[in-house]
C-alpha cells in the first residue's frame, strides 16, 4: 500500500457551546484521534457534559460578549474552531437568539482574525435555514435558497441564516493575508444521541410516562435523523479538509470545494418521525403495539398547541414555554429529508453507526442516568 500523507493536526481547538451534547461528542472524537490535543470549551454553563481530561479546558463565557470571546480566544490560540453554540432547546429566551447567534458569531470571527492562529472554522448550522416549518422538505440539497421573511418567520432560523452567511463570507477573508481563515458549515438532520437532554430527553420522558402511543398526523412523514457520533465524525472530516486546503489556491472546480461551502449530514436512512419515537419507547421497555396507537389529526393537534401556548402565556406572563406548541406539532408532521451526496463526495462522509444502534446507545445512556436527568 502507498504511504498516506500524515493527517493534519487539529489542535489547539476551540469549541463554542463546548458543554453542549454535540460538542461533547466532537471532543471525544478529537481525543481519540489526537490524545495530546489542547482543547478549549467556551460556554455559559460549564458544569455539564465535561470530559475528565487534563487537556480539556472549560471557560465560562458568553458569546454575546465580545470581551468574553476575545479573552478565551487569546487563551486558546486555536488552529481549529468548531462553532456549535446554539440556544435552541435551551432556557434562553427567543429575544436572546440574535445576541447569541448573530452577534456571537461576529464576535467569534473578529476574535479569530485578531488572534491570527486560526486556519479552520466549522460551523454547525441547520436545514431550518431553507425550510419554513410549514412546507415539506424533500431530498433537500445545499443549493436551495436560504429563506427570508415573509417565507421564513422562525426567529431562530433567521438568526442561523445570518450567522451562516457571515461565516461563509469570512472564508479566506480574514485580513491577515490572502489566505485567511477557511470556513464551512454543516447542516445536520435531527440530531440524537447520548447526553441529548433536549429532543431525545423529551422522547424518553414521554416513553417512561407511557404516552408514546399518541401520534400527531398520519405518521407517514419520513424524516432524516443523524446519530451524534456520526455528526461528530462529519465535523472532524470537514476540519481536516479545511486544514489540508489552507495555503492552497481555492479549487476552480466547485464540486470538490470544502471552504466556503455547506454540507448536509444525516444517517442516510430516513425514518417515519413517529416510528422513531416508538423505537425510543421500545428501548425504554415501553413498546407500543400498532393497535394501541392513538392518531390525533394534525388540525386538532395545532388547535391543542394554540390553546396550550395561550394558557401557559397567560399563567406565566410570557416567561415560560409550553411543552406543546403549534411549531412542535408542525415539526413532527412534516417530511424533512436531506440529500447528503455532497458530504459523501467532498468530505468522504459515511455514517458508521446505524439508526437502530444509535437509538440503542442513546436510550441505554438515559436509562443509566438518575430519573430527574431526563
UniProtKB/TrEMBL annotation:
Pfam families xref list: 3Beta_HSD
GO molecular function, one term: oxidoreductase activity, acting on the CH-OH group of donors, NAD or NADP as acceptor
The keyword Transmembrane belongs to this UniProt entry's keyword annotation: no
InterPro entries: 3Beta_OHSteriod_DH/Estase, Lipid_A_modif_metabolic_enz, NAD(P)-bd_dom_sf
Domain 3-beta hydroxysteroid dehydrogenase/isomerase: 15-286
Statement: the UniProt record of this protein carries the keyword Hydrolase: no
Alphabetic keyword roster: Oxidoreductase
Organism superkingdom: Eukaryota
A GO biological-process term: steroid biosynthetic process
Family from the record: Belongs to the 3-beta-HSD family.
Protein name, as recorded: C-3 sterol dehydrogenase/C-4 decarboxylase family protein
Amino acid at each position: 500500500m502507498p504511504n498516506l500523507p500524515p493527517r493534519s493536526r487539529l489542535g489547539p481547538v476551540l469549541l463554542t457551546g463546548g458543554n453542549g451534547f454535540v460538542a461533547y461528542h466532537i471532543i471525544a472524537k478529537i481525543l481519540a484521534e489526537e490524545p495530546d490535543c489542547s482543547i478549549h470549551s467556551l460556554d455559559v454553563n460549564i458544569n455539564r457534559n465535561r470530559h475528565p481530561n487534563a487537556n480539556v479546558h472549560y471557560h465560562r463565557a458568553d458569546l454575546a460578549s465580545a470581551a468574553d470571546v476575545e479573552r478565551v480566544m487569546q487563551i486558546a490560540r486555536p488552529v481549529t474552531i468548531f462553532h456549535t453554540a446554539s440556544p435552541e432547546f435551551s432556557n434562553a429566551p427567543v429575544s436572546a437568539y440574535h445576541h447569541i447567534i448573530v452577534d456571537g458569531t461576529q464576535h467569534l470571527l473578529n476574535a479569530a482574525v485578531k488572534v491570527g492562529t486560526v486556519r479552520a472554522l466549522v460551523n454547525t448550522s441547520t436545514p431550518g435555514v431553507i425550510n419554513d416549518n410549514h412546507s415539506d422538505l424533500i431530498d433537500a440539497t445545499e443549493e436551495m435558497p436560504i429563506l427570508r421573511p415573509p417565507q421564513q418567520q422562525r426567529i431562530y432560523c433567521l438568526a442561523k441564516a445570518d450567522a451562516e452567511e457571515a461565516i461563509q463570507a469570512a472564508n479566506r477573508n480574514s485580513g491577515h493575508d490572502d489566505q485567511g481563515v477557511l470556513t464551512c458549515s454543516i447542516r445536520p438532520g435531527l440530531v440524537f444521541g447520548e447526553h441529548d437532554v433536549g429532543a431525545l430527553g423529551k422522547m424518553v420522558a414521554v416513553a417512561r410516562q407511557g404516552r408514546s402511543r399518541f401520534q400527531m398526523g398520519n405518521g407517514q412523514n419520513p424524516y432524516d435523523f443523524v446519530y451524534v457520533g456520526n455528526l461528530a465524525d462529519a465535523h472532524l472530516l470537514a476540519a481536516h479538509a479545511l486544514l489540508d486546503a489552507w495555503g492552497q489556491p481555492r479549487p476552480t472546480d466547485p464540486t470538490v470545494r470544502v471552504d466556503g461551502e455547506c454540507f448536509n449530514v444525516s444517517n442516510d436512512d430516513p425514518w417515519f418521525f413517529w416510528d422513531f419515537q416508538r423505537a425510543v419507547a421500545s428501548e425504554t421497555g415501553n413498546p407500543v403495539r400498532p393497535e394501541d396507537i392513538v392518531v390525533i389529526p394534525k388540525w386538532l393537534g395545532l388547535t391543542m398547541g394554540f390553546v396550550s401556548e395561550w394558557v401557559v402565556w397567560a399563567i406565566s406572563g410570557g416567561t415560560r414555554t409550553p411543552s406543546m406548541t403549534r411549531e412542535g406539532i408542525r415539526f413532527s408532521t412534516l417530511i424533512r429529508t436531506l440529500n447528503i451526496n455532497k458530504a459523501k463526495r467532498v468530505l468522504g462522509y459515511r455514517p458508521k453507526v446505524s439508526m437502530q444502534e444509535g437509538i440503542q446507545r442513546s436510550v441505554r445512556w438515559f436509562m443509566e442516568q438518575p430519573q430527574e436527568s431526563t
